[in-house]
Design brief:
The protein is elongated and about 85 Å long. The model is unreliable at 27-31, 334-361, 386-407, 427-431 and 440-484 (pLDDT under 50). The protein is of the alpha/beta class and 484 residues long. The strands form seven sheets. A twelve-stranded mixed sheet has the order 1-2-4-6-8-9-11-13-15-16-18-21, with no helix packed on it. It has a four-stranded mixed sheet with strand order 25-26-27-28, with helices on one face. The chain has five helices and 28 strands. A hairpin with a 5-residue loop joins strand 1 (70-72) and strand 2.
Length: 484
């Protein structure tokens, strides 16, 4: 008995402290009533007056936990000020720099204006600086170059000027850099490649120019490179193929030249590649079939030419595929949506045409066009019948085209021998017509003649401008896409 009691005592001596620790861990944390430091309250009240804000509870002696839009440390020093989308109006008061322990400053989506004071650079503890969607001016990128702890720098949609200074390379911890829609000028510095933690680089709609530096390939963590509507020239560096984590590469509407690097096919994590409105030349690399995660490929309004690789038909994740508007004709088409349950086939084509979304207005225009074409054809047939008609005078009227059978792209490509020139039977400004043979039922590739009662189908493939796959003797493949 004595041994049993001693053992029980030892067990309780071990278990009870553990249970007590668990109970303490489950209790909600006790919020300490840290009072707002007098120096911080005075600085905040100056900001409040400058921005025309209602009372935020920033009075001297107020508890930090009760004040709005701020957090404090145990000394009552402000560590975070977040007044995003608060309808603020005014400039940046110098008092803001007295919040010396700030690690987060978010002033985004307000009506703040004027130059950012150079003294803002004294806030060296900042990790997040958000100034986007205001009317700020000045050379912000030079001001922030000393904030070496910055992780997130968002200054898009302002009126900032100047160039991107080489000193920005000091921001080695930066993961997000958004400078879109400003008046930045000049080339990108080679030192940009030192921002090795950067995962998101967004710099659209600026006046940046010059060649894209190959040093960008050193940004091993980069996932999003968004830089349309700038003045970048030269070719796309093949070194970009080293960006093994890249998911988006958007360089639309830059005067880029040169060929489309086949090395980009090594970017196997890529989901969006958009180069519309550039002057890139050459052919679409067959190796792009390795980009199996792509859901957006926009090569419209370029100078690409030659055959669209049949291997692109294997990119089953593609949702948007655009080759339209090329100044040099591309040959062939590729399916936009390979949804096997679809009642019709959506294909976006090129041939110096424009892919038009099938919306209500477009559908109405297509309907009017169809009525006009059918009416004109009917008048022509009637007149021909009146004149004797020839061998087709007694032929029956064509029946309305049945709904599109879902013909896999690979089958159509095989049926036309890879869009071979020998299969091309005509065309014009808006479309080309190819002759092809395939089998019903989705197997494809078998020769079949019309009128023998089998499952085969023989006809022509029209690669044109808008619509869907239709027809019995003539399968009309018209590009349609929706961007959203």
């Amino acid at each position: 008995m004595g041994c049993a009691r001693a053992a029980s005592s030892r067990i309780f001596a071990v278990v009870l402290p553990c249970l007590a620790a668990v109970v303490v861990a489950l209790l909600p944390p006790v919020v300490q009533p840290f009072p707002l430091a007098d120096s911080q309250a005075a600085a905040l009240l100056e900001c409040e007056a400058e921005w025309g804000m209602s009372a935020m509870g920033w009075a001297q002696g107020a508890e930090c936990a009760q004040a709005q839009a701020i957090t404090c440390d145990q000394d009552g020093m402000v560590t975070s000020l977040d007044v995003h989308s608060s309808g603020l109006n005014g400039s940046l008061p110098l008092a803001l720099t007295r919040l010396s322990r700030l690690h987060t400053l978010d002033l985004g989506f307000n009506d703040l204006w004027g130059p950012v004071p150079p003294t803002l650079s004294t806030l060296v503890r900042l990790r997040t600086l958000v100034l986007d969607s205001n009317y700020f001016t000045g050379r912000i990128l030079s001001i922030v170059s000393n904030m070496t702890l910055l992780v997130d720098l968002t200054v898009a949609k302002n009126r900032f000027t100047g160039s991107i200074p080489p000193a920005i390379s000091r921001l080695r911890r930066l993961t997000n850099l958004e400078i879109d829609s400003n008046n930045f000028q000049g080339p990108l510095p080679q030192e940009l490649g030192h921002l090795t933690a950067l995962s998101h680089l967004s710099m659209s709609s600026t006046a940046l120019s010059g060649s894209l530096p190959g040093s960008i390939s050193q940004l091993a963590a980069l996932q999003y490179l968004y830089a349309p509507m700038n003045g970048f020239t030269g070719s796309i560096p093949t070194a970009f193929a080293a960006l093994s984590r890249l998911k988006m590469l958007a360089l639309d509407f830059n005067p880029l030249m040169g060929s489309l690097p086949g090395a980009l096919s090594r970017l196997t994590t890529l989901t969006q590649l958009t180069l519309s409105g550039t002057s890139i030349t050459g052919v679409v690399p067959r190796s792009f079939s390795a980009l199996t995660r792509l859901n957006v490929l926009d090569l419209s309004n370029t100078k690409l030419h030659g055959a669209i690789p049949a291997t692109l038909g294997g990119l089953t994740n593609l949702q948007i595929l655009m080759f339209s508007g090329a100044t040099c004709p591309l040959e062939g088409t590729c399916e936009v949506n390979q949804n096997r349950s679809s009642a019709f086939c959506r294909i976006c084509s090129s041939f110096c045409s424009t892919c038009i979304p099938i919306n209500a207005v477009g559908a109405l225009l297509l309907l009017l066009l169809a009525v006009a074409v059918v009416g004109g054809w009917g008048v022509w047939r009637w007149r021909k019948g009146e004149q004797g008609g020839g061998e087709d005078a007694d032929a029956p009227m064509l029946k309305p085209a049945p709904p599109c059978p879902h013909i896999p792209l690979s089958d159509v490509i095989r049926a036309t021998n890879g869009w071979a020139e020998g299969r091309r039977v005509g065309g014009g400004r808006w479309s080309n017509v190819f002759r092809g043979e395939w089998a019903e039922g989705g197997k494809g590739g078998e020769e079949a003649e019309e009128g023998r009662g089998g499952r085969g189908r023989k006809g022509r493939v029209r690669v044109g401008r808008t619509g869907r796959v239709m027809g019995k003797k003539e399968v009309q493949v018209r590009g349609g896409e929706r961007r959203g």
